[in-house]
Amino acid sequence: MKCKSCHNEIERTDLYCRYCGKQLFKAQKSELAVPKARKNKNGGYSGQIMVKGERMTVTAETQEAYEVKARAVKLALLAMKKAPPKITLGDALDRYIDSNCNVLSPSTIRGYRNIRKNRFTSYMSQAYSEINYQEMVNAEQCSPKTLANAFALVKSSLKALGYYVPDVNLPMVITPDLQFLDYTQVNQFLSAIHGQAGELAAILALHSLRMSEILAITTDDVVDDKLYVHKALVRNSDNLYVEKVTKTVTSTRFIPIMIPRLLELLPTSGRLVTTTPVGIERQIKRACESAGLPYIGCHGLRRTFASLAYHLKWDERSIMQIGGWSNMQTVHKVYIKLAQQDLLNYTSSMADFYRITNEDGKPLETQD
Predict the structure, then answer these.
(1) Co-location of 65 and 121 in the same domain
(2) Exposure check for the chain: N or C terminus, fewer CB within 10 A?
(3) What is the rounded CA–CA span in Å between residue 267 and residue 75?
(4) Which of 95, 55, 100, 98 is nearest to 74 (CA)?
(5) Residues 237-266: pLDDT tens digits?
(6) What is the C-alpha separation between 131 and 154, in angstroms, rounded?
(7) Would residue 168 count as lying in a domain?
């Protein structure tokens, strides 16, 4: 076990921490009483103490030494009897997940339960205070991002129990190059998916909707040529779709319909899209392949919205409001992608700056 004060490893029978001196076990007056010792033939003193049916003989050279030793032994036995049962790592995660079931998103809880089931499996039955956490993460075979997410759950679960989790070294998480369509490719994609099953879902994604928002939006949410985004459809721990409010406060928003084709595709009632996420991704991939475009996926179309808005000189506040982002840093880091043609235009303008020449084709001389 660990001392709650200094977090150093100590024995369960210790009365005081051997590192910081903190008293670890407090006893009642009655628990400090010990039977009177009898004098032995060899001149020493001895007596028997009993704690909850367990008897032990204590000997010492003097009456005073016997009493000190007997109290220490009795308190150690009491401490062992009163020591709480060991909580395993699996118990810690179960408690944390169960306590947050009504607070966190069903999809988040589903992800937590997947971690509980599939990560650190050989350590789940061990007492959490006796685990070498660096060895635990070293033994796990998964991607760096998956490992980081799994260990973050472990830290949160143990922190909720008041346990100090030591720092560990985790592999570096390398952010992949996230794909998107630049402004020269968007219309090619729309032509390729025109009339296909996934067209409506793709157009909603180009309006900045997340997959969960696309699945949840209904005809009642289309008001005055605007999309009212205020709910999401996600899978819970039982792998069933449930409806919840949007991801953040800023995710609830009105989005003007900017692609006229969307109005032509609206159903008469119910949800706008009834295809599964796998089906939507498959349809988008098929359209990308037919147009000779890189496969970007539904979320790539959401990134395309932000990048196109940036290319069209939208201000950042408008991008955040329509896209439902609360943090502009996230938008810059993940969603706004600079189109290659824009980059060429910028570099060409700088090259032109250094390419100033006179009528003879020679560089202009610096004027004194």
Answers:
(1) no
(2) C
(3) 76
(4) 55
(5) 888 899 988 877 889 999 999 999 999 999
(6) 12
(7) no
Backbone angles phi, psi at 102, to 5 degrees: -95, 5
Instruction: Tabulate helix, strand, coil % of the chain (nearest 5).
Output: 45, 10, 40
Per DSSP, 219 falls in state G
Least confident interval from 24-38, 117-131, 174-188, 235-249: 24-38
3-class DSSP state of 74: helix
- Name residues whose C-beta falls within 8 Å of residue 95's C-beta, 6 or more positions apart in sequence: 157, 160, 161
Residue type, 332: H
Are 76 and 96 in the same domain? Answer: no
Element (H, E) at 245: strand 241-245
Which has the closest alpha carbon to 250: 223, 210, 303, 211? 210
DSSP 306-347: HHHHHHTT--HHHHHHHHT-S-HHHIIIII----HHHHHHHH
Does residue 83 register a pLDDT over 60? Answer: no
How many other CB atoms are found less than 10 A from the CB of residue 154? Answer: 25
Query: Domain range holding 37?
Result: 1-83
Do both 204 and 278 map to the same domain? yes
Is residue 356 a part of any domain in this protein?
Answer: no
Q: Is there a domain that residue 172 lies in?
A: no
Q: Over the range 158-189, which residues count as b (16 or more CB within 10 Å of their CB) and which as e? A: beeeebebeeeeeeeeeeeeebbbbeebbebb
74-106: string of b/e by CB count within 10 Å (b at 16+)? bbbbbbeeeeeeebbbbbbbbebbeebeeeebb
Q: What is the pTM of this model?
A: 0.66
pLDDT tens digits for 120-155? 999 999 999 889 999 999 999 999 999 999 999 999
User: Sheet containing 38-39: which strands, arranged edge to edge?
Assistant: 38-39, 45-51, 54-60
